[in-house]
Amino acid sequence: MNERRILVVEDEPTIADAVAARLRAEGFAVELAHDGPTAVARAEAVQPDLVVLDIMLPGFDGLEVCRRIQATRPVPVLMLTARGDETDLLVGLAVGADDYLTKPFSLRELAARVHALLRRVQRHPGAAAGDQVTRVGDLEINRTQRRVRRAGVEAHLTPTEFDLLVHLASRPRAVLPRERLLADIWGWADASGTRTVDSHIKALRRKLGADVIRTVHGVGYALDLT
Question: What are the tens digits of pLDDT across the range 108-142?
Fold first, then answer.
């Protein structure tokens, strides 16, 4: 099995070294970057399987790093933040992050989140002998190629946005509770991160149209196209 490569972007040497050591102990190959421009360059050079990305960086911040690397190639991003400002977390998810941890965090939890993100990508390697396509209304989801079109126009989705859309499309018009989506897509056993679900739903609506997903207040969401 090929070694999975992770790019860790963190400007605090103590944290960067600790994260890198834990991920290497988990069997990953780890690359390090300590500022925004270097992070974008390393992501282009090494094509990582996942990026662990701090928001506060010299050069330019992690939000800009996330925008630039996602524009080139969809890659799972686990964002780190020392801020308690929820706005930063929501903006991070909006620009393409798949998950986040707020400092201080345990290295065990970080490793668990990394494994969960990579498992989702590995479930859809894109190598099946024939495209698996789901159509709901004018929405076409090619699960083999991990590509989405609406009315013939392709939309660029992050790995988590794609997996969330596929999950909703597997039960069209059925209302799926936010807690269920959080458990099925993110692998979280509690409801503490339901705002993460909300942020990704907003991103899907922005990219595919406001009418693509229906909100059932107090319950959850449904893919509901005619």
Answer: 999 988 998 888 776 554 434 445 888 888 999 99
Given a contact cutoff of 8 angstroms between Cβ atoms, the answer to whether 178 and 198 are in contact is yes
SS3 track for the chain: CCCCEEEEECCCHHHHHHHHHHHHHCCCEEEEECCHHHHHHHHHHHCCCEEEEECCCCCCCHHHHHHHHHHHCCCCEEEEECCCCHHHHHHHHHCCCCEEEECCCCHHHHHHHHHHHHHHHHCCCCCCCCCCEEEECCEEEECCCCEEEECCEEECCCHHHHHHHHHHHCCCCCCEEHHHHHHHHHCCCCCCCHHHHHHHHHHHHHHHCCCCEEEECCCEEEECCC
pTM for this entry: 0.69
pLDDT in tens, 30-47: 999 999 999 999 999 999
